[in-house]
Structures are given as structure tokens and as C-alpha cells.
Write a structure and sequence with these properties.
Layout (H helix, E strand, L loop, with lengths): L5 E5 L2 H10 L8 E5 L5 E3 L2 E3 L1 H10 L17 H6 L12 H15 L4 H11 L5 E4 L6 E6 L2 E4 H7 L6 E7 L10 H7 L2 E4 L4 H9 L2 H9 L4 E4 L2 E2 L2 E2 L4 H7 L6 H8 L5 E5 L6 H5 L4 E5 L6 H12 L2
Parallel strand pairs: 1-2, 1-9, 2-5, 9-10, 10-13, 13-14
Antiparallel strand pairs: 3-4, 6-7, 6-8, 11-12
Helix pairs in contact: 1-2, 1-13, 4-5, 7-9
The structure holds ligand FO1.
Length: 309
């Protein structure tokens, strides 16, 4: 039996919500979080890691509750002046948020790795969970569209996911290696939990690091995924368009088919109960819970439901 810790694969806001529940159910020192870094972007000369920061801020309970990203009670004074010098003001970089980008960029310049910087920031913020970037090498998610090849953040924020998707690629994934320890965390965990993140450009990006996907396949019987799609639509973000692009039905069944190789268990919303038989036909044990995490109590009870399986 694996050691008594849980390894979580996480992307943006949906993952952060689940993790806010998980840290109330399991001792944080028994939670290892492997985070998508495909959204990472350099803007204003600063190294920005959106998914790492969303999860860091959410656990540290300083995240903006309504947006799910960035600092709470944020101001954008610096950004309003930066606009005189740059033209990428589409990225809403808050004044408090700026601090982590300045610090991270400084440590990168001093030669530290993304993993070392992430654990340094967690230590300083008193976060006991282990946050690990999926790779220390750069893997960047690009969306090829009618407007050209866009960085995911540009597609998502500046263009509001409107341009037609012509291709989705993870630049650098063929060379990227998992951060040291990630493979062992997947192999030896009591359960591996795939958060309700975008299957294509959050979890899919993590899976584009070949050794991670291979390891998940080898332990699939203890891999539990939570569907990010309820009643055929995403709670947030462009997962529906992206699943459609790859020819997957935009439903929990479509997500199950996408994850089929790497999961043994799938958690769907009660409202999708009718899809359970078809998902189980794929050889995936399926459970129906209330997965819409609209408050901290629901985040905690979903986490408890998954841990108790
Ligand atoms: N998401 C937005 O929709 N608009 C923004 O202006 C924005 C700024 C931003 C700044 C820092 C950060 O860590 C995240 C930010 N996000 C913003 C969220 C981010 O774009 C996405 O939620 C994730 O990349 C999706 O996984």
C-alpha cells in the first residue's frame, strides 16, 4: 500500500477550489500538488506562473474569492502606469500580486529553479502542502487560431476565448522532464487525485510530460479524477471548446473517454447520474456527488467524499 499521502494534479481555479476543501480534510503535509506550468508567461520582464500562484494564494487564503485568481482587495495602480510603456495591459497584474512576480523573477535571475522558488515561497507563506511545478523546463501552451498562434493567456484573457481554435500545442513538452520527486509522488501516493481543471490545457499539459502520463497509466487503479463538466458545460473556462476541438463530447462521459487510459475512478456530479452506466462501461468506477463547489463547506465535503472512497 502506498504511503499515507495524496498526490494531486492541478491547474487553475477549479483545482484551487477543490484543494481549499482538501486541506481541511487531510493534513497539508500529506498533500503533494503537481501543478500545470503551461500558462506561465513573461510580461513586463517578470516571470508569471498563474496556476502556481492561484493555488498558492488559495491555500494561503489571500486569493480574490470572487475571481478565484490574484490577490484579494487588489489595486492596479502600477499596471495603470505600466500602460505608458507596454501594450500588454490586457493582463491584469495587481499591485499585491506584483510582489510575488518580482521575488520569483529575482530568484530565477539568481539561478534557482521553478521548483526551488515555489517551495521557498510556500515556506515564507507558511504553506505546509508540497507545491511542485510539473517541470522545471519550460512547457508553453499555445492556441493556434485564425488570429495566429496565441499564448494560452492571450487567447483566454485578451481574446476571451473567442478566436476559432485551429490547433493546441505544448511547446517544449517533448524535451521537458518531470521535476525530481514527481514520479515517486505519483507511484507511492495512497491516491492520485486529478482536480476538476481543464482536461485539455491544464491536466492535458501535465500529461504532455510523457513520463508523468506513463506513470499514471501504471498506477491507474488508484487514480481518481473529478469531472470539470457538469450537465454538458464547464463551470468556468474554455474546456468545452477545447474538448469539442479534439472531438470529445462536452460531457462527463467525454471527459471520462479523454482520461480513460490514466484513471480507474471518476467522480461526476449527481446531475449527470444518467451517464454513470456508460462511463462504467469504459471500465472506470464512477461515483456521483455534489461537485459544484459554491462555498467552503461544499469544497470540504467534496474533498471528504473523494478521500473516503
Ligand atoms: N484571468 C483572467 O481572466 N483575467 C486576468 O486579467 C487574469 C490575470 C491574472 C494575473 C495573475 C494570475 O496568477 C492569474 C491571472 N488570471 C487572469 C487567471 C489565469 O489567467 C487563468 O485563470 C489560469 O491561467 C487558468 O488556469
Amino acid at each position: 500500500m502506498g504511503e499515507d499521502y495524496y498526490t494531486v494534479l492541478a491547474g487553475g481555479v477549479g483545482a484551487a477550489k477543490f484543494i481549499q476543501g482538501l486541506v481541511r480534510v487531510v493534513d497539508s503535509s500529506n498533500i503533494k500538488i503537481v501543478i500545470n506550468t503551461g500558462d506561465d508567461i513573461e510580461l513586463f520582464g517578470l516571470r508569471i506562473c498563474p496556476d502556481i500562484d492561484i493555488i498558492t494564494y488559495s491555500i494561503a487564503e489571500v486569493v480574490d474569492k470572487e475571481k478565484g485568481w490574484g490577490f484579494e482587495n487588489e489595486t492596479f495602480n502600477c499596471l495603470s502606469i505600466l500602460k505608458n510603456y507596454y501594450d500588454n495591459e490586457w493582463f491584469n497584474l495587481g499591485d499585491k500580486d506584483l510582489a510575488i512576480h518580482i521575488y520569483r523573477t529575482d530568484l530565477f535571475r539568481k539561478g534557482f529553479t521553478k521548483a526551488q522558488i515555489t517551495s521557498d515561497i510556500c515556506k515564507k507563506l507558511g504553506i505546509k502542502a508540497k507545491l511542485i511545478p510539473m517541470s522545471d523546463e519550460s512547457v508553453t501552451t499555445y492556441i493556434d487560431t485564425s488570429l495566429g498562434k496565441l499564448h494560452f493567456e492571450e487567447y483566454y484573457i485578451k481574446h476571451k476565448c473567442k478566436p476559432e481554435i485551429l490547433d493546441i500545442s505544448f511547446n517544449g513538452s517533448n524535451k521537458a522532464k518531470p521535476v525530481r520527486g514527481v514520479i515517486d509522488y505519483i507511484k507511492n501516493a495512497k491516491k492520485v487525485i486529478i482536480c476538476p481543471s481543464n482536461p485539455i490545457v491544464s491536466i492535458g499539459t501535465i500529461l504532455s510530460v510523457k513520463e508523468i502520463k506513463k506513470t499514471l497509466i501504471s498506477v491507474k487503479d488508484k487514480v481518481y479524477a473529478i469531472s470539470p463538466i457538469i450537465e454538458g458545460s464547464t463551470v468556468k473556462g474554455p474546456a468545452n471548446k477545447m474538448m469539442d476541438f479534439f472531438g470529445y463530447e462536452v460531457s462527463s462521459l467525454g471527459v471520462a473517454k479523454f482520461y480513460k487510459e490514466i484513471i480507474g475512478h471518476f467522480i461526476i456530479d449527481r446531475k449527470d447520474q444518467s451517464l454513470k452506466p456508460q462511463i462504467e462501461e469504459l471500465g472506470i468506477k464512477t461515483y456521483c456527488f455534489d461537485t459544484l463547489m459554491t462555498n467552503i463547506q461544499k469544497k470540504e465535503s467534496l474533498a471528504r467524499d473523494v478521500i473516503n472512497l
